[in-house]
Records
---
Amino acid sequence: MMSTDLWFAVVGALIIAMALFTFIRHTHLLRRILAFNIMGSGVFLIMVGLAQHDQQTDPVPQALVLTGIVVAVSATALALIIFRRFYKASGQTQLDEDTEQ
Amino acid sequence: MSFWLPLLVLATSLVAAIGIFMIPENRHAVRGTFNLTAALIKIALIIWILIGVIQQQTFETRFTLIGDIDFILRADALSLLFAGLSSILWLCTTVYAMGYLNKAPHRSRFFGFFSLCVASTMGIAMAGNLFTFLIFFEMLTLSTYPLVVHKGTPEALRAGRKYLIYTLSGGAVLLIGIAMLHGLIGSFEFAETGVLSDVAIEQHPLLVFIFAVLILGVAVKAAIVPLHGWLPSAMVAPAPVSALLHAVAVVKAGAFGVVRIVHNVYGIEFAQALGVLLPLAIIASVTIIWGSIQALRQSEIKKRLAFSTVSQVSYIILGITLFGPIGTIGGLVHLLHQGITKVTLFFCAGIFAETLGAHKIKELNGVGRRMPLTSVCFTLGALSMIGIPPLAGFISKWYLGWGAMEAGMSWVILVLLASSALNSAYFLPVIYRLWFLPAPATWPDEKIPFRRMETNPWLLWPTIVTATFTVGAGVLAASPLSPLSWSALIAVREYLP
Amino acid sequence: MNLMPLLLIIPLAWALISLLAPRLPIGLLAIVGMLIQLFASAMLWFSVHVNGPESYAIGDWMAPLGITLIADGLTATLLAMTALIAIICAFYALFYLRQYPREQRFFWPLFWFLLAALNGIWLAADLFNLYVGLELLTLAAVGMVALTADKQALAAGLRYLYAALLGSLAYLLGVALLYGAYGTLSLGQLSNMLEPNITTQVALGLMTLGLLMKSAVFPLHTWLPPAHGGALAPVSALLSALVVKASFYILARLWLQAGFDIMPVSAAQLLGLMGAGAIVWGGWQAMRQSDIKMLVAYSTVAQLGYLMLLFPLAIGVSAISATLAWQGTMFHLLSHGFAKAAMFLSVGTLVLAVGKKGLDDMAGISRQLPLSLFAFGLSAISIMGLPPSGGFNAKWLLLQSAISSGQWHWMIVLVLGGLLTAGYVFRVFRISFVDGPPTDIKPTPLPLELSALLLAVIAIGLGFVSSWPLASMSVTELLPGGSL
């Protein structure tokens, strides 16, 4: 029987791996933003899992995840704004260097 | 006061440089006055220090730069030899350059970097340790680059690039050498009999290696074959630059570096014991012969003079490698003699080019009658280079030959003879053309704005002054303040009592 | 009164003012704010210099939940450097942004957020606050890159943002693993607890990877040149001089305070190898650029490589060599900050005056803008590592370190790197000697030229007063692992 935190860690790692694959594989900028968010969720999952240590819940990882989510949301917002402006300015959904490949 | 004097000597040119950069381009009179005043103040300061040094005073500026390394400016007898030469020739060259660049653009830039270049030379002369030496050595590279590319033509830019590749690489190698030496023995200063004699015997092979690295670093500026390639290319620069670069600043900085490394870092006795002097003597000899042969093959006046410089600077290095006080005197005295002689020759070459448009040797036919004073100066310079008594060059060669005998390296005499023969071969035909061949109907590009004078007096007077030095240094060699006596004073101190 | 929280409160307060009251003269206000900031940083530096390291718990909450700030000698020096560079850049921006009225509105809030993030990173004592600082820094920096909102700027901003976010996640994952294993985030506590097991190594490896990405270390540097080369001049200066240094600073503290005996020596050598690659590749690319700002941006890539030499020179060697390497690297960080800011500002003035970015378009500019070229020249001396300059002293210390630990190969990298640098900076010097056709050159305000010159003079001056910052950087007793 797997312990809870290991279970969280394995699932988290799996999610990160899948998201990372998407991030590298896909050049569409919106997909990359999504991939980044999913990757973030994977990391948070691992962190929350660690909080389940020794019966009682450790408050620190919870606080960290909360901060992490705020940061991720702001980063996503910024990425979306810039992406929208970029799309308006160029009509592209990919960066120039990526389209050539 | 003895703390501030070396710094003041440096500051005269540094402040002059900053001031000149700030003076607007068209205020020529202000700039000229400012520049000459600075040059005169510098000479006065040097004389002040000179008197102090004779009375055994010490002048030293020192402050900590980084870790255990100090920035040291110190006026000893050897630094004064180089500093005195630079300051006097700075004055002459400045006067000459003011005439030469009359009506040319970018004069602020030119004179500014010119002063900066002299400041670096002063720093090199007075550096009290290798670290300080390196600072000014690199500063010299940077301040001479703008002078080499001054004309802004593609050719000048190419020469500038070549100059940089050579000198910056040299500087980098020197840095490695200094860092290695520092890593081996900690921080050290120049001392009269060297500082390395108590290094453990197991480290001696490493010391030999470091010696080679250090010499390689300074050899680029000293234009030792095969690292001399930048020098003939740098001839695209205006004549005063060639005069200053070749007679004083750059090549002498290299040669002076060799003197410092051999005498004040390794110590001549220790260098002899390590066995590093003979290879250096051989390299110097090869350079002397090779430079002379190349000079013979040139058809342009400035190119011929440039290769002649390659050859003549190695006389200094040859003198240093001849173990014994006489050889040292020969090398040191040549540092001065070659300076004043070569500056005269370049001044003359510049006058020929400016007044008559003559750049090639075959265009000099019969110039002697058109421009007698300049031609006399050129002839004196050339004869001094060949080593005709009683001119300055003769004194150098005499001492070098004597030193070679003392050191038991009589093959050096053969080198000296061969080189003198080659010198005659490339200078005598020029003298012959000047005086004995008929003048052509028209000169390539003659300018006749000067009514009674043969050329612009701003160009002529400095040339006459340096030519007089050439004669004076030879004729008055026995007087107590001659270059020879001063070199003898230094040489005696460098050998263990 | 403790100065440390003030260093965070000032920039945050000013950021809010600039954001919420854009009708105020926020540019002029920024200068006032920066003066206070500079003064506070100087006071802190002085206090640390005299009294030794200080710490401060925000709101009296203790770790792990509370936020503790620590100021040792290095921190104080970095804070002072940041304030000094930032105030000069702000002064420059005051005049420069007159050409960009729309961007001005957003520049100042971002500027202050950037500063808050930087100060937060220098002062942070635990890994998670460093993460928050890094993220705030990234968001502010990306915003500044995308400021002009044209296609190139936006693309550069996106590229930068993606790279930085990827880096942050790797870093955060590493932090999570470390917390799971040791139950603390304090760098000071971790340095005593870390054990060389696989979890620790994976965690440190992940964090290193993320930080390398954010510091644009070769071969992860591709986002940097478009971002730094394409931004407005004061932005480029801030990014190259300060922002990339923040992630490197974390990396250095992580490895030298906590991980020095955790990671194998070969990993340190690998980091050095990446640095060497950066020096060569960055230098080579800089030599090939036709756009003058891209040339300077690639120069940053190359110069970051020197910083990476810290790891092989300081890990697995004697204490003396390690100290020399540490001093040399931090001094390089300092002098490169000033020199590169000067370089970007002077180049920015040239581009503003000519209206084009091509190196060849600058011909004949020496008559109109001699001071800018002079400032470029002075900063280039430091960048090339020629004496006398801060860059040279840094190189000298690194050389001494390489020699004393017998690592000759890094010595050769150091020296060749200097020559390569000369290769590209002289391409710019060259243009001042070419008399091009007289182009129509816009007049530029003199303060632009003077601010670049001031920075360059500081970079050179560091060559003469290096004993001060070096002495101050050695004040680090507070952190247990920080024997360096």
---
Amino acid sequence: MTPNLKVSIAGVEFATPIMTASGCCGYGEELAAIFPMSKLGALVTKSVTLNPREGHPPPRTAETASGMLNAIGLANVGVDRFITEKIPFLEKQKTKVIVNVAGSKLEEYVEVCSRLNDIERVDMIELNISCPNVNEGGMEFGSDPAMTEKSVAAVKKVFSRPLIAKLSPNVTSITTIAQAAQQGGADAFSVINSLVGTSIDTDTWRPRLTNNKGGLTGPAIKPVALAMVNAVYEKCSLPIIGIGGIATAEDVVEFMLCGATAVQVGTSLFVRPDAPVIIADGLKEYLRKKKLSSACELIGKVRKY
Amino acid sequence: MIKPTCEDTFLIKKRDLKNNYFSMVFKTYSRVDQCQPGHFVHVHIPSTDIFFRRAMSVAGVLVESGEIEVIFKVVGRGTRLLSMLHPGDRVNFLGPLGVSFKLPKKSEKAIMVAGGVGFPPLFYMATEMVRRGYDPKNIEFFYGGRSVSDILERTRIKKLGVTFHPVTEDGSYGEKGLVTGPVERYIKSGDKAKMRLYGCGPDGMLRAVNELGLRLGVPGQLSLEAPMPCGVGICLGCVVPLVKGGYARVCQDGPVFEIGEVAL
């Protein structure tokens, strides 16, 4: 029997639990040239802001041990061009579409989400209240519980479909923030965004990124992400999408055992752009070996000491 | 748009070109027939020492046997690891990627300006033009380096029948000085309306070639290099500023750009 990879989050069904992570797949056009989008559970777009953003000057990325630092600076086409130029392409793709929304002011989040509410192709919104690479907004919305609750509640009023709060690991207590987002009306969590880090060129004594610091991602952050997914799973009742260094089917299994219902593959796409396909095949094989009929049987089943 | 593939390939031939330069020929890459001069492949070297792939411009292909050649200089951990591979070793190729050079009309002069390790894509272009029946006498191959050891594959260049203009800063081979000096002289001595300028090399040389093209009114293209995590346009990590404002991705919008397009 072929194991069932289908999962469901806040009433939305996904063909597999493997999604792309925001900022690592553009708006899907480039990856669609490499594998069919129907192989994905969902495509999570690059962050969309109210106005277009050019992003930070280069260099914007640096290689680290088992990962990368990035400070792209939320470069994106803005919500208007996203709707006119990117949605027509996304309309044709046989996968769920989750739009990541970022902003520097609460009104900006509300305005963007309100416009996206009219676009049926947008199955869910992922609220980026945790980006470490912008000077205004971003992480500050997701590092204060009151602000988190307020932001989520404000967006919930204008967006009628499910809302995912993407949580930052750069806080004292991620569970406190998760509880605040749940209180505000979030339907799910993405756990985690990147960790703040930096890297210095020892020849020039300058940081390797023009933003001086950036977000650390990739396999290097997987243990941190797993611990945080499990902490949120134990304290909150909402479904979790796990993110952080996922490169193999075994990584997905770990995240699901810790409480994730689905996962997002990010930095690994840069090393293997067809990683989601390979990982989904590997997950099926794993379930077959373990004689499990569905991926859902893994969720939260970690056997703790 | 070319559909890139991600597939394993193996090294069949390796040559140490001295002074940290290497030539490597890989086998069984199915998209070899889609490669054009200016394209690059993104190479994954299995190792825990590096995380990303490394972009390698294609130096030549043999479509019939499915072979692809890259020439590179060891500059960091990635290229060091690549240089340590032996025939039979496997790597993973993603490609072909990027925008290729626009070949000139057969009646036009192609002025190629290569600097140091900027040699491979222009060598591939010259080879391809000769293969397609261009008159080699219409290819002026300027090649600059610090010294004679930076001027690679001299016999192969000469074999193409192109006009070869080696230039070294220390005068150890060819004309002494910077490569852009003789290029400027050459352009000024001929019919600029029938010339196309192509450059690939270090930043300073690219800036000078760009300036020459703009000042003397010779259109053409430059191939840029940048560290690139993804190679397919999704990470936005390899951007360069454009003259008209905003940024372009070297991997997907380039690496080949028009002269005057990029703020170098």
